[in-house]
Amino acid sequence: MAAVESGNELVLEVEDLRTYFSTRWGTVKAVDGVSFDLRRGETLGIVGESGCGKSVTMLSLMRLIPTPPGEIVSGKIVLQGQDILQLTENEMSRVRGSQIALIIQDPMTSLNPVFTIGNQVNEAIQIHQDIPKRSVLQHTLDVLRKVNIPAAESRVKDYPHQLSGGMRQRVVGAIGISCEPAVLIADEPTTSLDVTIQAQYLKLLKDLQQQQNLALIFITHDFGVVAKMCDRVAVMYAGRIVEMGNVREIFNSPSHPYTEALLASVPKLEEDVDRLYAIEGQPPALHDLPAGCPFADRCPYVMDRCREEYPNIFQVSETHKAACWRLS
Amino acid sequence: MTTASQPAGTTEQDSPLLEVRDLKKHFPVTKGLLLSKTTGYLKAVDGISFQIERGKTLGIVGESGCGKSTTAKLLLMLEQPTEGRILFEGEDIHHTDADHRRAYRSNVQAVFQDPWSSLNPRMRVRDLIGEPMVINWDVPKREIEERVEKLLHDVGLSSYHANLYPHEFSGGQRQRLAIARGLSLNPKMIVLDEPVSALDVSIRAQIMNLLKDLQREYEVSYMLIAHHLATVRYMCDWVAVMYLGQIVEYAEVKELYNNPLHPYTKALMSAALPSHPDIEQDEIILTGEVPSPLNPPEGCRFHTRCPFAMDRCAVEVPETKEVVPGHTTSCHLY
What is the ipTM of this complex? Predict the structure, then answer.
């Protein structure tokens, strides 16, 4: 494994990932040809609505797709030089948590209610790190302090129900970073938190990222989180990335009509908006996708070609690309 | 106790649709055998006053535990207030006869956050939307059916939807059904409790625009409970910011967003997410979490988290002052 310590080293490369589910309605192409890469210290936002495939992408990266009914049918996920789709389950369980870790959305259900938080944090440490038993507690305390848990010495003995939502989410974060992974995936980490607690948590994630030079993937539906946190953005629709670029490129000149519509449909905190743009209709069912562009039915710029062929990916700038026939 | 003063500068001479004066709701905290001993009170709502004008929207913003949902329940008469008055068209709803109370209940309807749990899965759409009318109105069945069809049409659905069950609809469509049901009795006010936060981003704008259109068409007032500040800015005419059972700031929407006075409002604004990566925000990150309403801090309730706290904040309860005409806040800084 290449262990280069340079700042911009590539840590994750996803190439043409396809994850399908077989259901009684037919094959659901939840993720259908997703490619992106990620460098150390960088934050990538994956934005989309429910059912667009963002969570399945994340589960595929962790190799946590329930099989059956799901299956990663093709693609490559190269994590620090190693294609994790080629690993056995045993090898993968050593990678999971130590090289790539996950913060799940709901801190109420992702912690085990019958173990103390100390137990749950040091479980990850004991599995992945070869440190003597007596220093595990010390290590656990260090990790809890890193995520700003006040009075960590007494808190390690608390059970999840004794903590507030914000604290629980910190504990989940602590488990995520306990083994200093190269890539940390945060799946809607703040949706269940209050506004001021959300601000604290986002700041914490940013600080941790800087300290450990983490590569972060933010899965979210909220462009506000993207604006605040991300360097690059991938917008997903119906299982594919429809637009990808630097955060300013996406906000200043969205090139896919879906991105443009999404940005126009969000109310702004800083200015009065007379009337929001509302995208008509609903996302298509994934088991019954139309032949052409899946956004065609809702797109204000739809052309005949859009209904026949899935659009190619066009390069808008060196770092910015989108899948739309208007760019051809 | 703090009392938000009447918002001055209301130009209309006639009384507001709804007026709340010094409303309190204290839940007893009990323990012992059969919960016989009362050990204290949870002051969920502790002396709030506001008005809702006809055809306008009041937004109530605050974090969990600030009392905004209890306020909604009080207005819907699902809870009895401990103290204070709710005046609807000038009449105190708790000191009036049963007929008036019944009329109030049909005049004030609700739309809740989660359209998956707020619609009875065993009822067809026609019965869901028609039920309030069957109960409250003495009109022939045919008329009710006609009205159900009109309501479905008004919320952007069509008449064939009347025969379906809720599970056959998507989240956005269900919220439309809930809105149609809320409108069925021609209410004068609807309490909207986080009406879009359970929906997908692209659907939220549809529902917000629908609510605004219906407000104009049906001349209905809204009380919107939300935590998302940008949504409140888009939807509301007046905003009340709540913290631990009290209103800490109350102003017209433009004034509040352009000139937030209370440190808590400022912190909320700076914690809200920007709409563009280039927008610079003030960094007021509050430490700690909202204290328990069982044992709220002495003095100003916000002083434990306030970046501008002074000595007197810990002892003295700040009075509510009208700092700018129509804009009140409770803070020792002013």
Answer: 0.81
